[in-house]
Amino acid sequence: MNHAARAIVHHVNSCAVALQDSPRLGPLVRRRMTVVSYVGRRSGRAFSTPVAYVRTPDGVRINVAIPDTKRWWRNFTGAGGPLTVRLDGFDRPGHATAVRLNDRRAVVTVRFTGGRDDVAGGWPGRIRGS
């Protein structure tokens, strides 16, 4: 990816994160978008990336469209690796595995590792309904 394309991607990602923090639009945006944080497998650097997600019974599923244009999901191929997913105001630890389905789609499956309350929509110390 060239410098101009990287700058555009960075700007779009920054806008997506800012929308999540918006008092008006934030609740709507957070229903389908979140930020995942992880350490790069080869670089050892920490990264945070906004993604669209769908909740599953034990975590979330992230569909990666046009996977050749994105690199982050490749950190989770094979045995996968740890990451955190920001949901409901909490960073939830999980284990992610990625599978490329075809040229147009890859899927990252995240299983939360924080226990049953985590998956059920609560979090230790959080009062349900708050």
Characteristic key phrases:
130 residues; seven-stranded antiparallel sheet; 3 helices; 20% helix; 40% strand
Describe the structure.
- The chain is globular.
- It has three helices and seven strands; from the N terminus they run H-H-E-E-E-E-E-E-E-H.
- The chain has a domain at 35-119: Electron Transport, Fmn-binding Protein, Chain A (Pnp Oxidase, Chain A).
- The N and C termini lie far apart (43 Å).
- It is an alpha+beta fold.
- A seven-stranded antiparallel sheet has the order 2-1-5-6-7-4-3, covered by helices on one side.
- Strand 5 and strand 6 form a beta hairpin.
- This is DUF385 domain-containing protein.
- InterPro entries: Split_barrel_FMN-bd.
Topology:
Layout: H1 3-20, H2 26-29, E1 33-39, E2 46-52, E3 54-56, E4 59-65, E5 81-87, E6 90-102, E7 105-112, H3 116-119
Antiparallel strand pairs: 1-2, 1-5, 3-4, 4-7, 5-6, 6-7
Organism: Catenuloplanes atrovinosus
Protein name: DUF385 domain-containing protein
InterPro entries: Split_barrel_FMN-bd
What is the structure about, briefly put?
The protein has helices at residues 3-20, 26-29, 116-119; strands at 33-39, 46-52, 54-56, 59-65, 81-87, 90-102, 105-112.
Order of SSEs: HHEEEEEEEH
Low-confidence stretches: 116-130
Strands side by side in the biggest sheet: 2-1-5-6-7-4-3
How far is it from the N-terminal to the C-terminal residue, by CA? Answer: 43 Å
Task: Give the CATH class of one domain.
Answer: Mainly Beta
Helix content: 10-25%
Q: Which architecture of one domain per CATH?
A: Roll
What's the number of extended β-strand segments?
A: 7
CATH topology heading of one domain: Pnp Oxidase, Chain A
Structural class: alpha+beta
User: How would you name the CATH homologous superfamily of one domain?
Assistant: Electron Transport, Fmn-binding Protein, Chain A
What is the typical, i.e. mean, pLDDT? 80
> What is the makeup of the main sheet?
7 strands, antiparallel
Count of DSSP-assigned helices: 3
Share of β-strand residues: 35-45%
The gyration radius over C-alpha positions equals 15 Å
Organism: Catenuloplanes atrovinosus
Protein name: DUF385 domain-containing protein
InterPro entries: Split_barrel_FMN-bd
